[in-house]
Amino acid sequence: MTSTSVVTSSSRICFNSVCNDLKSERPRKGWQLRTGELAELCDRCASIYDEGRFCDAFHLNASGWRTCESCGKRVHCGCIVSAYAFALLDAGGILCIACSRKNAVLGPNSSWPPSLLFNSSLPERFKDCSAKGWSQLTGSGPAPWRQAPGLFNSSTSQPELHSRVPYEVDLSTGIDRLNVSERLSIPSLEKKKNEDFPERLMNGPLKPSAHDIHENGNTGINCEEQHTSCLTKPQLPSLKEDSSNPPFGLAVPYTSIDEANGQMGVSGTHLRPNPQPSLAKQFHSNPHNGLDSSGETQMRNGRPRPDGRGRNQLFPRYWPRFTDQDLQQISADSNSIITPLFEKMLSASDAGRIGRLVLPKKCAEAYFPPISQPEGLPLKVQDSKGKEWIFQFRFWPNNNSRMYVLEGVTPCIQNMQLQAGDVVTFSRLEPGGKLVMGFRKASAASASEQENEAKNSNGVSTHGDAELADPSSWSKVDKSGYIAKEALGTKVAVPRKRKNSVLGSKSKRLRIDNEDMIELKLTWEEAQGLLRPPPNHVANVVSIEGFEFEEYEDAPVLGKPTIFATDKSGEKIQWAQCEDCFKWRRLPSDVLLPSKWTCSSNSWDPERSSCSATQELTAEELENLLPHCNLAASKKMKAAKQESENVDALEGLDTLANLAILGEGGVLPASQATTKHPRHRPGCSCIVCIQPPSGKGPKHKQTCTCNVCQTVKRRFRTLMLRREKKQSQKEADATRKKQQPSLPDKVVDDEPLPCTTSAGNSSLNPEKVVSENLDDDTNRLKSSSSPFKGQIDLNIQPEREEELSPGSDSGGTMRLLQDATDKYHRQQSILSSSGNSNIEVTQTQPGSGTELGKINSSIDLRASHRDADMDHPAIFPIKTFAPTSATVISEMLPMQNGGRS
DNA sequence: ACGGAGCATGGTA
DNA sequence: GTACCATGCTCCG
C-alpha cells in the first residue's frame, strides 16, 4: 500500500476541496483515489481524516448520510472517503464500521469490485474482471455466502449477523483506506490501480512475502483474479497443481483466488487493516462466492474438473460459522486477518483411527489447491494453537467424480481431542494465506450452529423442524426440539433443519458413536423432567432390548418440571416453583404447566396467585421434595459423593444411582450403556459390563463378595440408613401409621405393603444418602422389601427379588420415591383393582408428569409392584421413562452396533 | 494376521 | 435421477 502513495496532485493546496490550506512540504496522505493515488492533505485535514471525522467535518451537509441499522449512528455513505466506514447489508441498510466489526458482518463492501480491492499482479485480469467482477459480486451469483449476510446471521436482525467473513483482527490504518477507496473506484480505473497495487502491497507492512505472491499468486491479492479467474488465467498455475508443491501451507491460493471472489481480495485488503472499518471484511465474507463458478474451478485446476457441476454453491452445512471467539482463537496474531472458508462436522469416519477426513468436494475444490492426481499434495495446516500439521490432500476417484480427503489427520484430531460430531473449521490466515484449522466441540457448536442455521438457512430452516442439534441423541430423540433446547440449555443444540441435513440423515451412526454420549445422557435426564405425554394422551410403553421406553404418539409436551406428591388427604397434587419468586405452589396433579410459570398463573389457588403469598411448603417438606425434582442436580450430587468412593464402586454406584433416580434404569442406564458401553465390553469392570447382557449368565448371589456386589450392598445400606433416619425424624407419624415399625417408612401410605414402607416416601434424596456414611444394616435391607429390587438386582433379573439387590433397591427406592409414596400407594391400590399395572399413574396422566412425577411414579409403581408382588403379579419389572420416543431409541441401538447393515 | 490404502456400496439430499 | 459422502469391504504390503 505504501507504494501506492502517490501525490494526487501537484497542487500545493490540500486535496480537500473545502479546505484551502496549503499542504505541508510533506503532505500527509489521505484516502485513496480512484486513480490509485492517495489524496494529499494538509495536516489539519489529514488529522481529521485519520480520526475518522472527515465526513463529519466536511460532508455534513452533503447527501448520502444514512443510519446504521444497528446503533443508529449516522454514517456518511456518499463519498470516497467514507467508503470504508460502513458496510452494506444484503437486506438493505448499512452498518457503521463499528457495528460491522462487532457483528462481524460481511462487509457491504462485498459489493465492491474485488479488483479494486486488490490489484493482482496481473493487470490484464482486471479488464475482464472488472466488468465481470462487478456483476458477480453484486449479483446474486452462485455464491450463497455473499448473498446474504443473513445467512450467517441469526434469523433476526441483520445487525446481529455475524460475519463469517474474514475477521479482521487488527485495525491497521492506512492501507485499508486506500484499498477501500480503490474499491469504490470505478472498474475502469481498476486496471490502473491494480497495476499499482502490487507495489503497494509489497511495500506495505502487510505485503505478502515474495513467496506468497509468486508461488501462490494469490495471497491476498486477488480478489479480482478470482472473478477473472474464470476468464483466464493461467496465472495461478503455480498453485494449481501439484504435488510438486511443497506443503501447501501458506497460501491457499486457490481459495483465495477463486473462491471467493473476494476472499482473496478481502484478505488483501485486510492486509492492511484499516483503521476504519474495513471493506475488506465484506469481501472476506464472501469467500464462498468464489467457490462456485465452475469455471473457476476449472481454472484452478488448470483442467476441467470432472464434475464441473459445480455451481459452486456450498451447502450451508459447510458454511463457516465462526464466532468472534473462534476467530480470535485462530489468530494468534492480532494483526492477521482470518477468512473463514468452511467447516465440517466430523463424522465417525473422520474422527476414527483411519486418519482420513473426508472433505466436502466443493470446499476442497474451492479452497484447497487443485490437484490433478489422486495422490494430491501435502497441505500444511496450522491449528489454532499455531501448531503446524501436514496433511495429504488428495482425492479418490468415485463415480466419475472425486472424493477429497485429508489424510493423516489423526494426530491433529487427537491433539484437539475431537470426536465425531465436533466441527473442524478451515480458514485462511492473512497475510500469508496460511490454512488454519480450528474446531468447535459439538456441545458448543451445536448451540452456535443452530443459531447460524436459523440464519443461514436463508429462511429455510428454523427451529421447529429440526432435530436437535446435538448430534446424537437429540435429533430423533424427541419430537420436541424445543424441549431439548430448554432442558439442555447451551449444550443442546437447537433443532435445525440444517442439522438434520448434516447429521441428521447421515449421522445416525454418528449419533451413536458420538462422543457426546455423556451429554446425551445428561440431556436425557434433563429432558425427562420436561417431557410428558401430550394432554389427553397416555404414553405407550415400548420394550426395546429389554428396556422399556415411553413413547408418545404425539410430540411430547414440554412442561415445567414439577414435583408430584400426595397430600395428607391422599389427593394427588404437584408442586411447581414460580419462576419469579421461586416459591413452590401446590397445584392439581393433572395440571400441565408451561415451561415458564409464575405465581400469577396460579389460578388454582387464588390466595397464592401472587409472589407475595407465603409458601405452603415448609423448608423441611420442600427438602424432601426437591431432591427428586432436579435430576441434574441430583446427578451432580451423586457424582460428588461418588468421588469419595473407590473407582470400582463408582460404576456400581452410578448404576444404582441412575436406577434410583430414574426409577428404572431403563432410560438412563440405557443411555449410559449406549454412551459408554455400546455393548458389553469384555474387560470393562463396570457394573453394567460385568454382567452378562440381558441378565444372562451366572448371577451374583447374595453371598457374592465381588466388588460390584459389595459396592451395591454398601450403597443400599447407606440408602437405607439414610432413609430411616430421615423418616424416623421427619415422618414419625407416617411411620406410626405403617404397621411395620422396623421400617422407617414415613410416607403416609395407604398401603401396608412392605415395599411401601421400605420405599419410604420420598423425603430422601438418593444422592444425599449416598454421600452420607454407609452403615450397614443388612437386616433392615433384608427386611425391607424394595420396589426396585428388579432394578437393583445385580443380575438384573426381576425374578430374583430375594437376592441382595432387592434390599439395596429398596433403599434406593425409598429415597427416590419419597413423597410419591402416597401417590404410589394410591396408584397401587388402583392398579390392583384395575389390574393395569403397566402404566403408571404418572404416565397416564398427561399433564401431571414432571420429571419427578414421572420418576416417582415409575419408581412407585415398581415399588408397588414389588411390594405388591404379591398383590400384583403383573407388573413390569422395569420401567423406564424416556422422554424420547421409543422410535428414536430403537434407531440408536442399531447404530451402536455398528455401521450400516 | 494386521493395518493401511483405495474402491465400492448405499443412504440421503 | 444425480451427486455427494460416510462407511464398508477388499486387496496389498
Describe the structure.
By secondary structure, the chain is of the alpha+beta class. Among the domains are: 110-318, no CATH class; 444-551, no CATH class; 557-627, 2-Layer Sandwich (Herpes Virus-1), CATH 3.30.40.100; 632-869, no CATH class. Strands 7-8-13-14-10-11-12-9 form an eight-stranded mixed β-sheet. A hairpin with a 5-residue loop joins β1 (28-32) and β2 (38-41). The longest helix is centred in the C-terminal third of the chain and has 24 residues, at 707-730. It starts with 27 loop residues before the first strand and ends with a helix. Mean pLDDT is 50; it is low at 1-9, 105-312, 445-530, 544-549, 552-556, 627-700 and 741-901. The structure holds a DNA duplex (13 and 13 nucleotides).
| Main sheet overview | 8 strands, mixed
Structural class: alpha+beta
**Average pLDDT value?**
50
pLDDT < 50 runs, ≥5 residues: 1-9, 105-312, 445-530, 544-549, 552-556, 627-700, 741-901
Number of strands: 21
Number of discrete helical segments: 43
Helix content: 40-55%
Q: How large a portion of the residues is in β-strands, by DSSP E?
A: 5-15%
- How far is the first residue's CA from the last residue's CA? 60 Å
Rg computed from alpha carbons, rounded to a whole number of angstroms: 33 Å
- Going across the major beta sheet, what is the strand order? 7-8-13-14-10-11-12-9
Oligomer: single chain
Globally, the shape reads flat
